[in-house]
Specification:
Elements lengths: L54 E2 L6 E5 L17 E2 L1 E3 L15 E6 L18 E2 L6 E3 L2 E6 L4 E7 L3 E7 L5 E7 L8 E11 L2 E9 L5 E9 L5 E5 L4 H4 L8 E7 L6 E8 L3 H11 L5 H16 L2 E4 L3 H14 L4 E2 L6 E3 L5 E3 L6 E2 L1 E2 H4 L3 H8 L1 H18 L5 E3 L2 E2 L7 H11 L7 H12 L6 H7 L10 H21 L3 H10 L3 H4 E2 L4 E2 L29 H4 L7 H8 L2 H11 L17 E2 L2 E2 L18 H14 L16 H11 L1 E3 L6 E4 L6 E7 L2 E8 L7 E7 L2 E2 L4 E3 H5 L2 E8 L2
Parallel strand pairs: 33-37
Antiparallel strand pairs: 1-2, 2-4, 3-6, 4-5, 5-11, 7-8, 8-9, 9-10, 10-17, 11-16, 12-13, 13-14, 14-17, 15-16, 18-32, 19-22, 20-21, 23-24, 24-25, 26-27, 28-29, 30-31, 31-36, 32-33, 34-35, 34-37
Helix pairs in contact: 4-18, 6-7, 7-8, 7-9, 8-9, 8-11, 9-11, 11-12
Length: about 750
């Protein structure tokens, strides 16, 4: 077993100790050092970040943390910094989404009699909730603790990938109880069926079926207590209004304990998407013992190993916190969604066993295809084949690649075919741990369906607004996926398909109105929608999904040159692009709250804008990209709880920060062309897999020296405005020499 050495003494300027980057030769010589200390899980819990708060392992099924009483948009993860109520500690959460779900299998330590429902703040005798003081919270990767004021109970949590580990310290000489809640979830989640049983004096098992964003969710559990249960009750909900939504009445289990001995009550809760028996196997494999402190240490070690895939040098402690918290947020999902025996629940509801890959869930693909997956191909190449194989199995089970997949359910949330770009990107970058012919079949079949506006795209060449809601945004996203598929078709010498999908990838041109310089909704008769206001956004009702004409005009990452030509040349293109970051106007009273983080009309808080800054280098104006990248990095991200300018969106907001801080970003949706911007870090060493490292050395970097003056790749002068994925993946050294002009 490889020994891991942790450095205790740090220079104030080096995140990875005093060893010069130039002397670090390989992964084997690169030391693993403590980086979890730079992670601040509070970042993104304020504002509209919607991030998960609690204890988890990297990419784990279990995200164990508190759930609060409010159940509205800013509580999509179950937690928000503005709130100090807790109704339970649940084992499944989402991070950064704009829709709320999960919070399944919730445990709440209580004292004495309680009303079994969520309760309301105004009535301290209703519900089983409790206030807490923010000062009592302690949190780091893999660990969370808090004091419940109402019951005087200290709660500590940690987790493995499939098991949550609780420690409850009750007051002495009281009637201590742990409530297992199968009713309450987050936001739009509703229970459908629940089952719970005491198997022996220390083991409780059951399942929870629910509906919400994931329409047919099923999760099984087993919970083992460190003490024998002195009294056991199964109860219906006291909330009669909600009870009518339930097909199963027994949705609460109450386990009472004798706490006179002053010893904590420990609870291990294992989950499975398949069965109670599999949950038991998961517990035996991942957490057979009761050493709580060791479990915390193991979680910390797991996070450190992942965080050490990028070691950075910077004199700014805030940058370290933002950077490593961003890395942490990119590794909450996609989440493992299979048992240790390789069983998993498929998209068709059937149970499968396949040891050839690790099945995953929580694919926020409309967001993550843009940066989170391109980042994964660099720092998690060992996971890419599992992700692609998961998508291909989903295709076999539901007849198309995932759109927004959650807990074996297709939500069809957002627009386009983003999985096509993710699969194509892996294909073109040379990943070969999946069936490439099946991958092509899946991409093509998903692109040739009749659903979600594709019927009209095939009929008209675009999607008319009088035939399909949000047709413009749907067609423009399909164009991005079609271009990605066309590149794979070209690599496979499928000329007919290449020509067909290349032509379809140009569908964005139908919407471009040369008289106004914007993309606009187009009717089936070929007429632009009237009236037209390029600033206005009407949520879910007009042509632009969570955006307006100013933002969507640039949604052509796959064909920047084609968009330049529509404007009539580089001069007109850059003048319009410059104006995007200056012009001001009202979005209207019905605009989506997702349109946030505005610089002019550039909206960094939402994903369709994320590539726009990096279009400047395509027309020889890299310095403008550098200027604006630095502005976003330093003004729209911070180490405060409201340090994200929009929803985290399951890692996408953070992935943009990571890549941009390193100095580049993938604009084209597939293939691996990373466009140079302006690096925020002074040096970086990146483990890129297979024992190789890619180092970035940034010379003369400062707040004023934000422009790249010269580039050297492996010691040789380099004059391209991008770096290829293959040059990163094979390891080497990239030198960026900075200046103030």
């Amino acid at each position: 077993m490889r020994k891991i050495i942790f450095l205790i003494i740090f220079s104030p300027f080096w995140v990875f100790g005093n060893k010069p980057v130039d002397n670090i030769l390989s992964n084997k010589q690169l030391k693993t050092i403590p980086l979890t200390r730079y992670v601040d899980p509070y970042i993104g819990t304020g504002g509209h970040g919607h991030v998960f708060m609690g204890a988890n392992a990297p990419f784990g099924l279990v995200q164990l943390g508190p759930t609060s009483i409010p159940q509205s948009w800013d509580w999509c993860s179950g937690y928000h910094l503005s709130d100090t109520t807790i109704i339970g500690f649940s084992h499944l959460h989402l991070s950064g989404t704009g829709i709320g779900d999960l919070s399944d299998i919730s445990l709440m330590p209580v004292v004495g009699e309680v009303t079994l429902n969520r309760g309301v703040e105004e009535n301290p005798h209703s519900g089983m909730w409790s206030y807490f003081n923010r000062s009592s919270e302690k949190v780091k990767p893999g660990y969370y603790s808090v004091h419940l004021n109402r019951y005087d109970v200290d709660v500590e949590l940690t987790a493995t990938q499939r098991v949550g580990f609780h420690k409850y310290t009750f007051p002495k000489n009281t009637e201590a109880c742990v409530v297992i809640d199968l009713e309450n979830g987050t936001c739009w989640d509703k229970p459908a069926e629940g089952y719970i049983v005491l198997e022996n004096d220390s083991t409780v098992s059951g399942y929870r079926y629910s509906t919400g964003w994931a329409k047919d969710q099923k999760i099984f559990f087993t919970a083992t207590f460190s003490k024998p249960v002195s009294k056991w009750l199964v109860s219906e909900s006291n909330n009669r209004k909600k009870q009518k939504d339930l097909t199963a009445k027994k949705v609460y289990g109450l386990a009472y304990f004798d706490t006179d001995d002053d010893k904590p009550v420990y609870v291990k809760v294992a989950l499975s998407p398949v069965s109670i028996e599999n949950a038991k196997k998961n517990m035996q494999a991942e957490l057979p013992g009761w050493n709580f402190e060791q479990a915390i240490a193991n979680a910390d070690k797991a996070w450190n190993l992942e965080l050490n895939k990028i070691q950075i040098k910077t004199a700014d402690d805030a940058v370290k916190k933002i950077f490593y918290t961003a890395m942490y947020h990119t590794m909450i999902a996609p989440s493992v969604f299979c048992d240790v025996n390789c069983n998993y629940r498929g998209a068709d509801g059937k149970i499968y066993t396949d040891a050839s890959f690790v099945n995953h869930t929580t694919f926020s693909l409309w967001d993550t295809y843009r940066a989170a997956h391109p980042l994964m191909t660099i720092i998690h190449p060992e996971k890419v084949n599992d992700i692609i194989n998961t998508m291909l199995h989903i295709y076999r089970q539901q007849g198309k690649l995932p759109v927004w997949h959650l807990m074996a359910c297709e939500t069809d949330c957002m627009v386009g075919n983003p999985a096509v770009s993710v699969v194509a990107d892996a294909w073109l970058k040379g990943f070969d741990g999946f069936d490439k012919n099946l991958a092509y079949e899946a991409m093509k079949a998903s692109s040739m369906l009749d659903e979600r506006g594709l019927k009209y795209l095939k009929e008209y060449g675009y999607i008319p607004y009088d035939k399909e809601e949000e047709g413009l945004s749907k067609a423009m996203e399909y164009a991005i996926a079609d271009w990605s598929l066309a590149q794979v078709a070209k690599a496979m010498d499928r000329t007919e398909d290449y020509n067909y999908f290349s032509k379809r990838s140009q569908s964005y041109k139908y919407y471009f109105d040369k008289t106004t310089g914007f993309v606009r909704g187009l009717s089936s008769e070929g007429k632009f929608r009237q009236p037209f206001n390029p600033f206005e956004s009407v949520h879910r009702e007009n042509d632009y999904v969570e955006g307006n004409a100013w933002q969507y005009t640039w949604l052509v990452p796959h064909d920047v040159r084609g968009l330049v030509d529509l404007f009539g040349g580089e001069k007109a293109f850059t003048e319009k692009l410059d104006s995007l970051f200056i012009v001001e106007g009202s979005l209207g009273e019905n605009a989506s709250p997702d349109i946030s983080g505005l610089i002019g009309q550039y909206a960094h808080g939402n994903e369709p804008s994320h590539h726009i800054i990096y279009m400047y280098p395509y027309v020889g104006q890299q310095e403008k990209a550098a200027d604006k990248v630095r502005k976003v990095l330093t003004q729209l991200y911070s180490d405060r709880p409201d340090g994200l300018s929009g929803n985290e969106d399951v890692g996408q907001m953070s992935a943009w920060y990571i890549l941009s801080s390193l100095g580049f970003y993938q604009v084209e949706p597939a293939g691996g062309k990373y466009i140079f911007g302006s690096p925020l870090v002074d040096e970086a060493v990146i483990r890129v897999g297979n024992g190789k490292i890619f180092r970035i050395i940034v010379k003369n970097n400062s707040k004023n020296n934000i422009y790249i003056r010269k580039i050297r790749l492996n010691g040789k002068p380099y004059d391209k405005y991008f770096i290829d994925y293959k040059d990163i993946a094979k390891g080497g050294t990239l030198e960026l020499i900075m200046g103030d002009k």
